[in-house]
Amino acid sequence: MKIIDLGVGDPRLDTDLLPVLRELRPHLSEELFRQVYERGHGQGLRFTAGYAEDGTCVAAAGWRIVDTTSTVRKLYVDDLVTSPSARSTGVGRALLDHLEAHARAEGCHELSLDSGTHRTGAHRFYLRERFDITAFHFTKELKPLEG
User: Fold this and answer.
1) Which of 8, 70, 75, 127 is in the most buried spot, having the most CB atoms within 10 Å?
2) Model pTM?
3) Sequence ranges of the domains in the chain
């Protein structure tokens, strides 16, 4: 298993990481992914890929380090997904360990993520990995104003 941080312009973002990321974010076209990453990179967005022994990308993480009044400094995971065929093989744990190492190196006090309420299998995994449920996440969809 190999965990690799992919930098801006790395062709593996499109060829390797995006197909896995689409399992969690099916709305992402290549063009939209590039647009989001172009804007998000300036806000700290980074991507890390997990590869199986045969060289196939089987896991993806989108993350950023942010400073907030509530936690001071944290590594926030925007996206974390493992291909169904690679679940329970240790790649998810390896990816989280890699992100935790980044967080510690950057002086973060917390590693956090949100998970959709319907993703009960993911919740079991996060609880096994010693994450705590510490908050509710509220969302209000904003539609374009008419006129």
Assistant:
1) 75
2) 0.92
3) 2-128
Q: How far are the Cα atoms of 23, 25, 105, 118, 133 from residue 17, in angstroms, in the given order?
A: 10, 12, 24, 23, 28
Q: Cα–Cα distances in Å, from 128 out to 61, 102, 114, 136?
A: 18, 21, 16, 20
CA–CA dist 38, 113 (Å, integer): 22
Task: Indicate the DSSP class of residue 119.
Answer: -
Predicted confidence (pLDDT) per residue in 15-63, tens digit? 999 999 999 999 999 999 999 999 999 999 999 999 999 999 999 999 9
Q: Token digits for 110?
A: 């917390």
Residue 34, burial from CB neighbour count under 10 angstroms (0-12, 13-18, 19+): middle
Q: Dihedral through CA 96, CA 98, CA 100, CA 105, nearest 10? A: -170
Which residue reads 């172009």 in tokens? 38
Distance, CA of 60 to CA of 45 (rounded, Å) = 13
Structural class in CATH, domain 2-128: alpha beta
Contact yes or no for 55/77 (Cβ under 8 A): no
